[in-house]
Amino acid sequence: MSQTLATGTTIAALATAIVPQQGSVGIVRVSGSEAIDIAKTLFHAPGRQPWETHRILYGYIRHPQTQQLVDEALLLIMKAPRSYTREDVIEFHCHGGIMAVQQVLQLCIEQGARLAQPGEFTLRAFLNGRLDLTQAESIADLVGAKSPQAAQLALAGLQGKLRQPIRQLRVTCLDILAEIEARIDFEEDLPPLDEKVVKAQIEQVLAEVTRILATADKGELLRTGLKVAIVGRPNVGKSSLLNAWSRSDRAIVTDLPGTTRDVVESTLVVGGIPVQVLDTAGIRETVDVVEKIGVERSRNVAHNADLVLLTIDAQAGWTPDDEEIYTQVKHRPVILVINKIDLLEQDKLKLLQSQIPNPKSQILTVAARNQGIEDLETAILEAVHAGNLQAADLDLAINQRQSAALTQAKISLQQVQKTIDDQFPLDFWTIDLRGAIQALGEITGEEVTESVLDRIFSRFCIGK
Fold it and tell me: Within 10 Å of residue 286's Cβ, how many Cβ atoms?
């Protein structure tokens, strides 16, 4: 990817999702040294509209040879360095749909631009110094945010909430390294190194690294969400529970056992956390080939879920089949949902609750009447909080790549401490200290390889 960037080529891509017959506006973005020339070749602005930076022109896009009208559009001009990539950038704001934007994109390519690779606009912004790597990753998080809280977290990263502490930690380590190397090179001209001060500084850096590392699980929860599987015997009300919870008719509900043959999915937000809810086929022994496949998928979904909602029929009670399903899922966090409680007398309901495992994780519902959903959401949040994954009040949170780099920095700093305690010469102190500096630099992009950049930006959409 970086080899093509080195040539200074101009790139172009669709910058908006194309939805046939639904998108009102489609944007073609062009960045590079030829962007303005391409715009002047294709775009005709009537009157005396000035071609100045950060202006929007109104006009027509025409084929440069045939002069055939392609679209009536707006043109946005952003000259370097005041643009997203710090290169000349132009955007054609066309009518939505498929044909107009595809024709304009093809014309840009015919005029010398090439199709941008995934994330290449943001990669150029990083390589040109407009963004650091944490900010670039925050842009991807913002585009893919599944809840308002996840979007706020991404915006905090875009504003430098992670970059600032990481850079400060790296500067501190560089200062320590400079002090140590000065003693190595000019030992006779400088006073002895204060070992206690160095150890205190490293301890402070370690404490901050540990604090930031603790945000990894919380950030991952907000970014990817919680996977919740609704499991149970056939006809206990799993689909009704999904419909009541999602306030929709995503799942078919009938009185016939085995109606749900495959996994039905719905995405919700609970307490700021994206929740992927999976309604599964009723688990039972069956000779029906299709239902058997659905049952096996249900078991797999339950096995991989972050949280299992084991749903039972209050009127039927706690059956041997319920016990068998519970045995299969109890290795996962489980909430027991006692559904259809309106069909059971109060004293019998209390007796049933005493017969069921995990009395503290029982929720009473009447899914068909939308009763008990708030209690269910409260129980889910309590289960999340019990795992120390509170998502509220986060001002920064690292992703998996950043977590791996910070972990390496922590290991290196701990090794520096051990080297000092073991009274090794100063040369040995610098080895792991450099390792910590490099690991911290990988987070912000101050020290990063081409393969890492390719891995990061390949996950972006084409036009970002």
Answer: 16
**How far, in Å, CA of 22 to CA of 18, rounded?**
8
**How do residues 9-30 score in pLDDT, each as one tens digit?**
999 999 887 766 666 889 999 9
Q: How far apart are CA 128 and CA 84, in angstroms?
A: 10
Question: What are phi and psi for residue 44, nearest 5 degrees?
Answer: -115, 115
Are the C-beta atoms of residues 429 and 416 closer than 8 Å to each other? Answer: yes
> Given its phi and psi angles, is residue 388 left (phi above 0), alpha (psi -120 to 50 degrees) or beta?
left
**Which residues face 335 on adjacent strands?**
309
Residue 286's H or E segment, with its range, is none
Contact status, residue 442 vs residue 387, Cβ threshold 8 Å: no
3-state SS assignment for residue 119: coil
Q: Dump pLDDT digits (tens) for 50-109.
A: 999 999 999 999 999 999 999 999 999 999 999 999 999 999 999 988 888 999 999 999
Q: ∠ at Cα 101 (100, 104), nearest 5°?
A: 90
CA distance 319 to 310: 13
Convert the pLDDT of each residue in 332-360 to its tens digit.
Answer: 888 999 999 998 888 888 898 888 887 77
Q: Are 88 and 31 in contact (CB under 8 A)?
A: yes
Which residues face 19 on adjacent strands? none
The DSSP output letter for 156 is H
First to last CA, the chain: 15
| Total number of residues shown for the chain | 464
DSSP 206-248: HHHHHHHHTTHHHHHHHHH-EEEEEEESTTSSHHHHHHHHHTS
Tokens found for residue 231: 């499991």
Percent of the chain with pLDDT over 90: 44
Beta carbons within 8 Å of 79's beta carbon, 6+ residues apart: 36, 53, 54, 88, 89
Tokens encoding 198: 């160095």
Nearest Cα residue to 207 out of 165, 158, 162: 165
Peptide bond into 20 cis (omega under 30): no
Give this prediction's pTM.
Answer: 0.77
pLDDT above 60: residue 173: yes
Residue type, 284: R
DSSP category for residue 366: B
